[in-house]
């Protein structure tokens, strides 16, 4: 019995000390869908909370903590400002601005809800997504487009941070 306990101890203790809270990959997902009914682009940008928090702390406020009911107005302002700087969208060859609607946290992901209004028809869309590239070299940003009954996904990296889709 003592031998079994010793074996378990030798196996389990190193596992406990080797646990690292950091995740092994750095990825975000941004979904962009055209709503013909609302004549708008509806956007959901998903980022790991710990990565986004690290970035917002470095950029804006060292004491910032991304948690429900924690300085909601300030956090929304920082998130909106950052995403406006790093996520650029051109529709039909013209730059468009999105409105930051809000955010929510689910598990370890921050879901940021954005909208571009007054988009009746799309003949082309260009998306530049540089989110978190300034903090994590390994960061990858997936852009999923659901427009004009077509679905297309792109993988953006620091050296290739732009995607384009034409419908002509």
From TrEMBL:
Q: Which InterPro entries match?
A: DUF6702
Q: According to the lineage, what is the superkingdom? A: Bacteria
Protein name in UniProt: DUF6702 family protein
Q: Which organism is it from?
A: Winogradskyella pulchriflava
Q: Upper taxonomic classification of the species?
A: Bacteria, Pseudomonadati, Bacteroidota, Flavobacteriia, Flavobacteriales
């Amino acid at each position: 019995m003592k031998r079994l306990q010793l074996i378990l101890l030798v196996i389990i203790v190193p596992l406990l000390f080797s646990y690292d809270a950091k995740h092994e990959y750095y990825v975000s997902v941004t979904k962009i869908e055209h709503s013909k009914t609302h004549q708008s682009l509806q956007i959901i940008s998903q980022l790991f909370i710990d990565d986004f928090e690290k970035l917002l702390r470095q950029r804006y406020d060292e004491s910032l903590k991304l948690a429900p009911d924690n300085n909601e107005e300030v956090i929304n302002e920082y998130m909106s400002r950052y995403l406006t700087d790093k996520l650029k969208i051109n529709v039909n060859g013209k730059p468009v601005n999105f409105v930051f609607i809000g955010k929510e946290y689910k598990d370890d992901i921050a879901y940021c809800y954005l909208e571009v209004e007054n988009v009746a028809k799309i003949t082309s869309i260009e998306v530049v997504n540089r989110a978190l590239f300034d903090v994590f070299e390994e960061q990858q940003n997936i852009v999923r487009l659901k427009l004009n009954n077509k679905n297309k996904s792109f993988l953006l990296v620091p050296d290739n941070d732009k995607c384009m889709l034409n419908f002509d």
